[in-house]
Amino acid sequence: MFKYILTRILYFIPTLLIITLLTFLLSQAAPGDPVETRLQGGQGAQGGGMSEKQAGEQAYIDMSKKLGLDLPPFYFSLGSIAEPKDLYKIFRKKERENLARLINEYGNWNRIEPYYESIKAFEVSLYDIERDTNSYTDLKILKEGINNLLNTYEEGKVSNTLSNMEQAINTMSKLRIDSITIIEKNYFESSIPAFTIMRDNYLAIKANPSVWKTNIPSIKWIGTANQYHVWLFGNKPWFSKSKDPSLKGGFIRGDFGESYLDGRPVSSIIKDALPITMSLNIISVLIAYSLSVWLGVFLSKRKDSKLDRVVSIVLFILYSLPVFWVATIFIVYLTTNEYGMDWFPTYGLFSNDLSDDATFWEVAKDGGAHVILPILAMTYGSFTYITRQMRGSMLAVLKQDYIRTAVAKGLPDNKVTWKHAFRNSLIPVITMFASLFPVMISGSVVIEVIFSIPGMGRVGYEAVLARNYPVLFTVLIFSAVLTMIGILIADILYSVADPRISFTKKK
Question: Quick check: 281 pLDDT over 50?
Fold first, then answer.
């Protein structure tokens, strides 16, 4: 048995690596820009002496480096010979994706790169133009045009944008010298050559396509200096106490990254939420199995009786009730004064007015009152299902020949039931345990959201809404780990329930 358990644990390593790889690939393909999300979460730019735009660009670059997004995604890249190896150096995700589309459309990176750089140069040339009442409308057209060019690759849209920008430039160039400041006039006149270069570079892309390059595959080796390697293994020396934010411990060392919303370490979020979810679910599972196993055996001995039919109907009704509906009914009828049954708290784990110097028993009483309804809502569904399965399994075992033989020998009914039939009937129920164990997190989402319980389910739900991918994918990986643990526990319980099941090779 020990050898089998050790073997299964070793199998966990490549399985977990595959799961982390899939999780990482999903994070790369997920919509949205994590850097912008983080900056919007309160980590924005500090202007200083630079213009707002320049400060924003620098803040974006700094945050990209802090999050490790200034590195290539993986150990190698798969693409065509038209794609450059260092496209990842384009920090902004939308701009990088747009350049990739341009490459796929025209295949000539030697022309596309100067075009992109000329857009950025023209953007810089507009930084310091004053927002004068006469020129602001046209200046706005130019700045919006730049944004469109950075995020558009379709020929029609690009051509239309360039045409609108050229018209705005012609309008601004006709302004009288007395209608704008001398400084603004100088800044504006210096930006005209930058626009001309940008337009000519785009025309050069159209005039010199190399689409054939997109049809030739290419594998470009990157090395270990990539996002996945740093995310999984880290780049921080082992046992190092350095607090340099650029050094990461990696996932295998418990460094799950930082939340995009507030910069809080994900490990800290998981540390607070996981014990809550595990405690509630373990209590729920213990209650469900303790009651349902006994009740299933009890009903199997009274097959087709009036009690069996009544209980079966009740179980079917309970199993058909949605969890969110039951939880809502609990809150409406058992937590409010409207129906005179405000027996339980409405939400949370503890009361807001609970004193800091409260005794252990006061805290335990308050917390117990808060978790009764969530545990009931989490338990009733699995209780009804396990009961039905246990009843069916017992009925199937009781029809076996060895049970008839035991009865024919005159063995007591209780001995036949609990010694001969019970253990063999547990196999299907144990199999269900392997599936119930890993859904502790996902199955807690509805309950934790409705009752405002700060567990893993609610954390994952809020991460989905906010596109907080470091938190979300850490929750997913923990769910996968629980799945593997559940399967291992089920295998061990198989051999305990049925001695005929052995995980050692028979000679």
Answer: yes
Structure-token match 């930058």, residue found = 194
In the chain, what percentage of residues exceed pLDDT 90? 13
**CA atoms of 179 and 184, how far apart (whole Å):** 10
Is residue 374 in some structural domain? yes
**Chain centroid to CA 263:** 16
Q: What is the rounded CA–CA span in Å between residue 107 and residue 104?
A: 6
User: Is residue 270 domain-shared with residue 217, that is, in the same domain?
Assistant: no
Side chain identity at 294, as an amino acid letter? Answer: W
Residue 71 lies in a domain: no
pTM of the model: 0.73
Say how many domains are in the chain: 2
Task: State which residues form the domain around 333.
Answer: 266-497
**Residue 37 within any structural domain of the chain:** no
Q: When comparing pLDDT for 27 and 106, which is higher? A: 106
Q: For the residues of 145-179, what is the DSSP string, one character each?
A: HHHHHHT---HHHHHHHHHHHHHHHHHHHTS-TTT
| Lowest-confidence pick of 16-25, 134-143, 305-314, 415-424 | 134-143
SS3 state at 425: helix
Residues 212 and 270 placed together within one structural domain of the fold: no
User: Using CA atoms, how far apart are residues 416 and 398, in angstroms rounded to an integer?
Assistant: 9
Query: Residue 324 is encoded by which pair of tokens?
Result: 């969110």
Which three-class secondary structure state does DSSP give residue 32?
coil
Residue at 119 is within a domain? yes
171 and 288 co-located in one domain: no
What distance in Å separates the CA atoms of residue 6 and residue 12, rounded to the nearest whole number? 10
